[in-house]
Design a protein that fits this description.
single chain, five-stranded antiparallel beta sheet, 5 helices, 12 strands, binds biotin
Length: about 240
């Protein structure tokens, strides 16, 4: 049983974004570990300004307020990705791979995403996990790349069954000392041929390692080591990138 993760939980039916609600709660003094869960989000937020589609009851839409030492922020997104992977393993027996920095993939399809936002000195850890969608539940534009635990493993896990193992895993992973080693072992990006898409353009290379700040070090096709901090990185699969 976790001691702080989910120490107080607000269950909402529909909100625009659990991250927005949790940030407001953080401003009002929510304790470390306070969590907001919604059955549906009407304005779910993704990384890099994208939307996150969050239909009622088909996934876990969760935000957790974290009051951590500044030294823990650097690895928080890696700890969170491992926690989601752990919770998938606990509920359906398969640990998804992690695509840098924190997308969770099963058979190459994204089943979960993580958005961390700062609110003053607190971090709000937003986690979306696609659980029960069938292919036709995803918008057409996402259908080729998105999946759920149901489509990828056949396991039909309701949000309320996914929450306890996830809170357990968040508590364990956020405090883990050798988190970068654990992350490296489950990160499909490291060692792979990648395409990096940055605001200024894109390039091909091989992902080599992480630096101390968690940035991805990529050896480009010209033989130059490049440090990638905020970008979309696709990993080469059977059908190219
Ligand atoms: C991504 O782009 O991969 C990150 C998606 C994060 C979605 C979750 S769902 C719960 C929380 N509330 C939000 O508005 N976003 C995050």
């Amino acid at each position: 049983m976790p001691t702080w993760a989910g120490c107080v939980i607000r269950h909402e039916e529909t909100v625009d974004s659990t991250n927005r609600v949790a940030r407001q709660w953080a401003r009002e003094g929510a304790p470390h570990g306070a969590a907001v869960i919604a059955r549906a989000q009407t304005g779910g937020r993704g990384r890099r300004g994208r939307d996150w589609v969050s239909p009622a009851g088909l996934g876990l839409w969760l935000s957790v307020v974290l009051r951590l030492a500044e030294s823990a922020w650097r690895t928080l997104s890696f700890a969170a990705a491992l926690a989601v992977s752990d919770a998938c393993e606990a509920t359906c027996g398969i640990a998804p791979q992690i695509k840098w920095p924190n997308d969770l993939l099963l058979n190459g399809r994204k089943i979960s995403g993580i958005l961390i936002e700062m609110e003053g000195s607190a971090a709000v850890l937003g986690i979306g996990v696609n659980l029960r969608q069938r292919a036709e539940d995803f918008p057409e534009a996402l259908r080729a790349r998105a999946g759920s635990l149901l489509t990828q493993t056949g396991a039909d896990i309701p949000p309320e069954a996914f929450l306890p193992p996830l809170l357990d895993a968040i508590e364990k992973r956020v405090c883990q000392e050798d988190i970068l080693d654990a992350y490296t072992a489950r990160c499909v990006t490291l060692g792979s041929a990648v395409r990096v898409i940055e605001a200024s353009g894109s390039f091909l290379g091989t992902a080599q390692s992480l630096d101390a700040s968690g940035a991805l070090i990529v050896l480009d096709t010209e033989g130059i080591l490049r440090r990638v901090q905020a970008a979309d990185v696709s990993v080469r699969g059977e059908n190219g990138f």
